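#struct-help
A.M.: can someone run this one for me? Single chain, 356 residues.
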Amino acid sequence: MTNAFILRWLRANLFSSWPNALLTIGALWLLWRAVPPLIDWAFLDAIWYAPDSKACRAAAGEGACWAFIADKHRFILFGTYPYDQHWRPALACAVLIGLWIASALRRFWSWRLVPIWIVGLVVVGVLMWGGVLGLPYVENERWGGLILTLLLSTFGLAIAFPLSVLLALGRRSGMPVIQGLCVGFIELIRGVPLISLLFMASVMLPLFLPAGVTIDKLLRAQIAMILFAAAYLAEVVRGGLQAIPRGQYEAADALGLSYWKKTLLIILPQALRISIPPLVNTFIGFFKDTSLVLIIGLFDLLSTIKVSLTEPAWSGFGVEAYLFAALVYFAFCFAMSRYSQNLERELAKPEPGQRR
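D.P.: on it. Structure tokens below:
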């Protein structure tokens, strides 16, 4: 890379006009003023480990107190899960992340992905509940932290996505009854906030159940989140279906394909490829919305951090606590965003032997 190339790039991207030059200089000045103090606070002067909060309080805010995260990391990650069994939710987290990675690899995009997910979710259930294979039983009231966030988002999206495809197809169906039911469900769920659905699932639903019949609180919350995600994803998928040229439908009909073959082999692949950006945007929003389960007494990642800050010894270190939560959410959301961008570029490439 020559100096001339660097100068051309700077002139074209940062100093192409007087307003752009002033904005560039202003941004550089802000970075110069903000970044060095931030590095000092977050890294150089930070307290990374301490047996108690006295060292952090003695620092008087000169450096970040990451000792809070070091002391409370097990509770933040696993909630009140039995301490000596923390390897189980840790392994469950690894399995869930592995399922998402396997789903992201194109070589697994076949029927093999279904048994992989079934086996993976069964393994997660066995690890979390126990009661078999010599594992002590742990009631789900003790689940919390990052593992609960991953469970709610993984099970929610894994079930909501195929349901949303059926809802989108039903909304475009020519059968009035099916179309009406799908439209009614989508508009009803999208017309109320997620908090209302969680309250209904937690407070109102038990009132309508027969005497002696109960549904677990975590299961009720999961069902509410699945229905919420399915309604929003259905509209995204419907937008992709509407973007398919009419000629694709006519070509499939001319080949004599049945409705389901036409839909599964020709229409849906194109519609989902078009819908990748809004789909991932909905996935990211749903992942962050899991923090709302606090209102019904479930303690996800953000909730365990809030509870940790109520301990008198560690009160006053909210900046470090919420910055850590933001980094965790950013890591997962940024990974989904980058993957969607890479997937768009890969799918935009012509197949070997295919002409543009």
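A.M.: thanks! The chain has two domains: 83-137, 147-348.
D.P.: also worth noting: Residues 147-348 form a domain with the MetI-like fold fold (CATH 1.10.3720.10).
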